[in-house]
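HUMAN: I'm a chemist; might I ask for a sequence paired with its structure tokens?

ASSISTANT:
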Amino acid sequence: MASAPKPKKDKGPEVVSVSPLNDKHRVISVARPAREKSSFLTATLKGLAITTKHFFTNVTKGDLIETVQYPEEKIPYPERNRGLHRLTQRDDGSVRCVACMCCPTACPANCITIVPNESDDPSVEKYPVVFEIDELRCVACGLCVEACPCDAIRMDTGEHPEPVERRGDAIENRDSLLARGIASTAVQGGEGADWREDEK
């Protein structure tokens, strides 16, 4: 049985001289490309030719133009687009959030700020005095919605954040979030303490 041929070893760069003090210090010759291959003129002319071709194609036909004339033209958002946040309300119109701090804890972008306060309502322990979301830092992951145990925050508006000139204008506060929200249909606190006995 014939043995397989051994792969040829790469010779590497040509060694011109070796240092007499240390054989690891060597002088090698570098293979330089020919002058016509190292010139940028050919590559520049190719790039200009492609640019000119696209320019005249777009001027005459317009088939390759991807630009959307916003705001006159708008691309419809996909069905799974979440949109801006909103805070839901109770039947009496108060904010449904109980300031449990689950949403700022779950937020990977740290864009939610909540300042809690004690509530006068005996059925509600706390409520948020300050509820702010920095929409410029938000990555629209929806983890705040998943973490909320009270169905207080949702991302089902389908609205895109409006452009702002100052960074502070992109911060949604409690009033703007409530203005976008409606009353929640979820039962606060679940189905009651005796929900297991009701199933029997």
Residues 86-179 form a domain with the Alpha-Beta Plaits fold (CATH 3.30.70.3270).
